[in-house]
Design goal:
Layout: H1 16-27, E1 30-33, H2 39-50, E2 56-60, H3 63-72, E3 80-83, H4 91-102, E4 106-107, E5 112-113, H5 118-127, H6 129-139, E6 144-147, H7 153-164, E7 172-178, E8 189-193, H8 203-221, E9 226-230, H9 242-257, E10 262-267, H10 269-273, H11 275-281, E11 293-295, H12 299-312, E12 316-323, E13 329-331, H13 338-354
Parallel strand pairs: 1-2, 1-6, 2-3, 6-13, 8-11, 9-10, 9-11
Antiparallel strand pairs: 4-5, 7-8, 7-12
């Protein structure tokens, strides 16, 4: 593998998981896990509490049902708070807030108001633990939320978009790629975005994704972002085809939205990553030899790209980490392990801590 920059490359790699666990313990933020009766989630909650990864761990569910799951797996619930949404003193306020957030929204199937009043808001939140958990994060009763062991990604995104909202117009995702090779990125780590959420971003969305990925880089890798916005074209070599123009426009908009962020494009992957190729295809590029954040032009490229690197380079891929939301929430694979939940929770708690 070619060395990016012999004079500036870090000599050591980073233990990403260890760093996330360490930082989460230092930040001491609170975590809500809305799938409170899911067996892996209960086991992960116990690990998070026992290791002090979060200041407070909250499971949503009927206490007797949560306790039954814990008992069947010999899990100690010490230090874990169990909240039954139906008994919560926050329910009236949450229902009112949800009604206000959705006021004026029409159900396309019935042509009636989606949430006609506060009572309807309460009923919806009782039916959907993810939305109740999102409301806890919105209101500051928890700093972060992790779900997905039982729920689809779309369910989490829906709760996040409706209740927590976004910093810009676009919610997206990133993967932290650990190449285990200090020649690449920052101590072997890179941010790849967006690989899971926005299928065909327009130039405005793509610029939002770039800015959000830069923030993810700073929060999760602990370094200043240096981003390359990828294309099959470098600096106009692909002509004036729409996909090329889209990335060029996104680069301009990203510069406007984050003028202090080091970013260049449009660039082919080799032009972004190999200094000798950068010199030929994009001479004078400010990102030469320093790229730690890759922005793909669409979801197809992003998903294919991270999986190729994961499999061919034997890299570890952590994510998708959701980004662009006003407060941190994270998704899990429904096939996740207990340790996956612990690590994802630590990453999300670090997002919460670094946002201050």
């Amino acid at each position: 593998m070619a060395v990016m920059n012999e004079t500036t490359a870090e000599k050591e790699t980073m233990d990403f998981v260890g760093e996330m666990l360490k930082k989460a313990k230092e930040y001491q933020k609170s975590l809500v896990l809305p799938e409170g009766t899911e067996e892996r989630t209960v086991q992960a909650a116990a690990k998070i509490a026992a290791k002090g990864i979060a200041k407070k761990v909250i499971l949503l569910g009927i206490p007797s049902e949560v306790e039954k799951v814990a008992k069947s797996f010999d899990v100690n619930l010490k230090g874990i708070e169990i909240i039954n949404p139906a008994d919560s003193p926050w329910l009236d306020d949450f229902g009112k807030t949800y009604f206000e957030l959705r006021q004026g929204k029409i159900n396309k199937k019935t042509n009636m108001p989606e949430v006609p009043d506060t009572e309807a808001g309460k009923k919806y939140l009782l039916k959907d633990p993810l939305s109740f958990g999102a409301m806890m994060v919105r209101k500051g009763y928890a700093d972060a939320m992790v779900s997905g062991a039982l729920s689809a990604t779309a369910d989490l995104l829906r709760a996040g978009l409706k209740i927590i909202g976004t910093e810009s117009k676009t919610a997206s995702s990133c993967f932290v790629m650990d190449t285990h090779d200090s020649s690449w990125g920052y101590k072997g780590l890179m941010i790849f975005s967006d690989c899971a959420v926005v299928p065909e971003p327009d130039s405005d969305q793509l610029s939002d994704i770039a800015v959000a990925a830069g923030k993810s880089c700073k929060a999760l890798l602990g370094c200043e972002p240096c981003a390359a916005m990828l294309s099959f074209s470098t600096k106009g070599s692909g002509g004036k085809l729409p996909p090329v123009l889209l990335v060029q426009e996104a680069v301009e908009k990203a510069h406007e939205k984050a003028p202090d962020m080091l970013l260049d494009g449009e660039m082919q992957a080799d032009a972004a990553l190999i200094p000798a190729v950068t010199d030929k295809k994009a001479p004078g590029s400010p990102v030469r030899g320093k790229v730690n954040t890759i922005i793909f032009p669409n979801l197809g490229a992003g998903n294919i790209g991270y999986k190729l690197v994961q499999r061919l380079a034997h890299a570890d891929a952590y994510g998708p980490v959701l980004q662009g939301f006003s407060k941190p929430i994270s998704d899990l694979s429904r096939g996740c392990s207990v340790d996956d939940i612990v690590v994802t929770s630590a990453i999300t708690l670090v997002q919460a801590g670094s946002a201050e």
